[in-house]
Amino acid sequence: MKKRPSDANKIRLSIFGSCVTRDILMFDSENRIELKNYIARQSVISAVCPKIGAEESEIDLSSPFQKRMVLCDMNKTAFDILGGRKSDFIILDLVDERFPLKRVGDSFLTASNEFRISMGEKYEKYPDLYKRVTAFGLYAGHIRINKYVKLFCENLTDIYPENRIILHRALTADRYINKNGEITPFDTNIIKINSEINDVLNKMYDMIIKAISPIHEIAFDGEILSDEKHRWGLAPMHYTDGYYISMLNKIYEIADNELNK
Question: Less Cβ around it within 10 Å: N or C end of the chain?
Answer without folding.
Answer: N
